[in-house]
Amino acid sequence: MSIELCLLFFLIALMYSSAGFGGGSSYLALMALWGVDFQLMKSTALICNVVVVAGGVYHFYRSGNLPMKKAWQLSLASIPLAFAGSYLPLKQQTFFLLLGIALTTAAVFMCYRLFWEKEYVPDPNRTQSVYGYGIIGGLIGLLSGMTGIGGGIYLAPILRLGRYDTAKNIAGLSSFFILVNSISGLAGQATKGQLILDYRFALPLILSVIIGGQIGSRFSSAILKPRWVEGITAVLILYAGVRMLIK
Predict the structure, then answer these.
(1) Share in percent of the chain as helix, strand, coil (round to 5)
(2) Which of 4, 20, 27, 222 could pair with 175 as two cysteines, CB 3.0-4.6 Å apart?
(3) What is the Cα–Cα distance from 160 to 57, expressed in whole angstroms?
(4) Where is this protein found (predicted)?
């Protein structure tokens, strides 16, 4: 196991956890650059997602920033679709093509937030479309299961564009969404017999993200500037995504 990869996983968990994300897109980007087997990538990324956001869900709930009714409305369709997505047979070439598109799109979302999004203010008078957001959540869940991305990196910008809730509540909703989709995706892989775990490879990475996630959920938001974090991760994800598409 590469010490450099463990350190990078630790830093990603540290940075992402403060915003309610698990870091699955960046874990996949790094493992793709390291040439890791694609089935091992999916399983490892989802497990890392779970251990990072589980603590975040607890902290957001305790602080009153996780409205459970909205969380279930967003997740009810995504959970079975994440399971179905992980069950779909994907050849390696198809997986990397899909992952390249997913990572490039994620980088675009992050760049939008960095350069074009003005000060965020939720709209308390706006009538929310439960079914509309449920459908969006379901589609993101399907993508989550197919690629090993928890989906929060897509959900959060959409909720912000719709002024769905406060910024802290959206972070809590994203954490919950990532957690349930990642568990559902892992269940689909296990049912299909494709939950691939190499403990010599995965265990150091899992320990790295547990430590990084616990530190990040408590302290990193006070130390790290969110724009720096998003800028660095957007560049990494964009590079990995475009590199996959070119290949």
Answers:
(1) 80, 0, 20
(2) 20
(3) 19
(4) Cell membrane; Membrane
